[in-house]
Amino acid sequence: MTGNGGARGDEPARSSAGHTGLSRGTNQAGVRLYNERLVLSLIRRNGALPKAEIARQTGLSPQTITIIVNQLEGDGLLRREAPQRGRVGQPSVPYSLSPEGALSFGLKIGRRSVDLVLMDLLGRVRGKLHRTYRYPEPSDILAFLEAGLAELTAGLTEQQKMRVAGIGIASPFELWNWEHQIGAPRSVLDVWRDIDIQAEVARRTAWPVYFYNDATSACAAELMLGNANHYLDFLYIFVGSFLGGGVVLNGSLFPGRTGYAGAIAPMPIGRGGKERSYEQILKHASLYVLAERMEQAGQNPEMLWREPDNWGAIGPLLDDWISELCHSLAVVILSATSIIDFEAVIIDGGFPPDIRARIVAGVTNNLENFDQQGLVPVHLAEGQFGSDARAMGGACLPLLASFTLDREVLFKDVR
Fold first, then answer.
1. Which comes out higher in pLDDT, residue 18 or 35?
2. 14-26 burial, b if ≥16 CB within 10 A, otherwise e?
3. CA-to-CA distance for 132 and 305, rounded, in angstroms?
4. Handedness of CA 195, 201, 203, 204 (dihedral sign)
5. Cα separation, 235 vs 248, whole angstroms
6. 73 vs 45: CA distance, rounded Å
C-alpha cells in the first residue's frame, strides 16, 4: 500500500503508453544536461539574455554557450528576440524562453474544490477548470481529470500535445488523517488511504505524472514564477483549507528528508490562561476555521470556494478571523526565523488580493509587538498567485523535473 504519502519518489509515474516529445535531454551526458538546465534557469530568472552575458554569468566558454543555446533554440525551448543595437560592434541578440517550448498540467486536490490548469513554459495559464464539492472523492476527481484533460487538449495542435511535459498533482499528504477538517465519511477517507492517486492518474494518460504536497507545490510556483524580489532564502506560507508552506534555501526548494519541510500546521501554540496546554496552530490559522464560524453564524461558507475573489459579504466574522490569523502567523514567523535565518517570508492563500494585503499588514503589526531581540528583522511580502498557486505549482512540477536545476532537490528520494 502506498497511498498519497507513498508516491513521493524521485521518478514520475508513467502510463504503459510511455511518453514522447520532450525526451531528448534525458539521454544527454550529465554535464551537458546540467549546463542546459543552467542556461534555462538563468534566462527564466533574469529574462532575455545574449550569449555573451550567459557565458559571463555561467563561467562557461562562449563556444560552449553557442552550442547549448543553438541546441535549445532548435528544440523550441528558446527563441531569438530583436537584436539590441546602439553599442560598438555587432548587434547583441538576446534569447528568451519560448512560451510554446513546453506545456504542463496541474491538478490541485483540495478539501472543498479541485482545479485543473494548463500552463506554458512562461507560467501563463492557458486554460483552467474549477469544481467545488462537499468533500473530495477519488472517483469523482479522476472523472473530473479525464473530462478536463479532454476539454483542455481539444484546442491543442498535435505538435503542442507533443510538448506536454507531464501532469503535476498538488494535494495534502495523507488526506485520511484529516477527518474533522475534511468532513468526509470514514469510508471515503479509507479509500484515500488505500489508493495510489499518482498511479491512477498515470493509468489515464500517456504523460509522466508527478505528485507533491499542495503547499510545497504552491511554494514551487512562487519560486519559479513569482518571487519578484529574487529572495534566495525564504519561508513560504499558504493559508488554505489547511495551513501549510514551503522552505527555499539558496534559491532552491528544500522539501526536507520526508517532504514535510514547511508543514507549519502542526506547530504548537499556547491556549492561554493558567493551564499549560497547547494545540496545533491549524486550529487558529486556516480557512476551515473561518468556514466553521460562518456556518455557526448561519452563513453559507461555500462562498469561500465558489467566490474566492469576493469576500465582502462575510462581515465582522472575517475581521475577527484575520486578527487571530495574523497573530498566529506572527508566532510561526518568529519560531521559524529563530531556527533559520530567512531573508523573507512570503504569505499567500486562497483569498482575494485585498484580504492578502490586510493579512500581510496585520502580521507586520503583530511582529512589532513581539520581543525580537537577537533576531534580524525579516522582510514580509505577498505571494503572487492566490487561489491558483497550488494548481500552478502542480503544473510547475513537470517543468522543474525537465528544465531546471531544482530537479535534483525537488525529486530526490524522500520515501
1. 35
2. bbeeebebbeebe
3. 7
4. positive
5. 6
6. 18
pLDDT digits (tens, 9 = 90+) for 116-151: 999 999 999 999 999 999 889 999 999 999 999 999
Rounded-to-integer distance, Cα 51 and Cα 55, Å? 6
The tens digit of pLDDT for each residue in 44-59 reads 988 999 999 999 999 9
Burial class from Cβ neighbours inside 10 Å (0-12, 13-18, 19+) for residue 319 reads exposed
Give the whole-angstrom CA distance, residue 322 versus residue 316.
10
Report in angstroms the alpha-carbon separations of 183 from 59, 91, 135, 406.
Answer: 55, 63, 7, 36
Q: How many CB atoms sit inside 10 A of residue 154's CB?
A: 8
CA-to-CA distance for 358 and 311, rounded, in angstroms? 13
Residue for cell digits 513546453?
102
pTM for this predicted structure: 0.86
| Dist CA 130 CA 358 (whole Å) | 26
Q: Could you read off the pLDDT of 232-252 as tens digits, one per residue?
A: 999 999 999 889 999 999 888
Question: Could you give the CA distance from residue 137 to residue 192 in angstroms, rounded to a whole number?
Answer: 8
